[in-house]
């Protein structure tokens, strides 16, 4: 290639989804013409490769790739889509199992806490009936205070989370920002 040869970047190939706009092509041609001759081909190839890149993400390949699989092995597109559907179904089942087991564990924890609390209160009542009034009252009062403390703490946590979520959804008013 000589200095007089115009270097033109015209589209990004037959695999491209969108051709390069003419304005962009002209600007790139101008830039490439200002480069030393030995750098023009490499720069042109680099720019074309960068412009032809496209990003695609998801559970299944880009439609063009699926089409190519289908051309190589008829029926493979359907198999790829079926594989993605099976994986999604598996994820949903696993999420349901995890959520279900979390609910069961939470209920078992509540039942265990109730049994322990009742045992402590009954132990305190037994101590009171045995003539150990101070120890019995201490057990009952401490247990009730502990349960009330946990309840109040959880209520405050829930209110703080609710307030945080509301602030994320609603922008503060003029009065709140002052």
Mean pLDDT metric: 81
**Topology as a string of helices (H) and strands (E):** HHHHHH
* Poorly predicted spans: 1-17
Radius of gyration: 35 Å
Largest sheet: none
The proportion of residues in beta strands is under 5%
What's the tally of helices?
A: 6
Q: Total number of β-strand segments?
A: 0
Ends distance: 67 Å
Fold and architecture overview:
With 178 residues, the protein is mainly α. The protein is 75% helix and 0% strand. It has six helices and no strands. It is elongated, with a radius of gyration of 35 Å.
Characteristic key phrases:
elongated
Describe the SSE topology.
Layout: H1 22-33, H2 37-52, H3 63-72, H4 76-129, H5 133-169, H6 174-177
Short description:
Helix content is 75%, strand content 0%. It is mainly alpha-helical and 178 residues long.
